[in-house]
Request: fold
Amino acid sequence: MFKVFYEDVIIGTKSKLGTTEFTEADIIEFATNYDPQRFHLDDEFAKSTPFGGLCASGWHTCAKVMRVIVDNMQETGFACVGSPGIDKLRWIKPVFPGDVLTIENEIIKKRTSSSRPNIGLVSLSCRAYNQHNELVLEFNNPVMVLRSTATQ
Reply:
């Protein structure tokens, strides 16, 4: 189950979490259901926009990045028990069909919770890069992490 607790977290640690690929079909399916703007649905129309072609919704990008983050937490046994939100979310470059994103994070700060002594708050700086090593997405993600004393 859990192997990495609040006390194990070291500020400055950088990790590569994994990758995720975007296909045209995935982009259109997500947009159809959740963000049906025309440049996410119609490649011909999208060519006439500043994007220059069909591109993924920023929310689609966030969702797929989140999946990589959660899969990594489960694989490593990171004792995350939720998040109070996202800070400074930025979509920097569009994500196109065929793009493969590599997700990385860095631990930027941590503190114990004043209201819940069994958890600590860890702030992660998360970034996604395309296959050309171009930054396409970044955000700060504060997460609640169990303290090792909470499991005893």
Observations:
- Residues 5 and 115 are 18 Å apart (CA to CA).
- Strands lie at 14-21, 87-91, 100-112, 119-129, 135-146.
- The chain has one domain: 6-151.
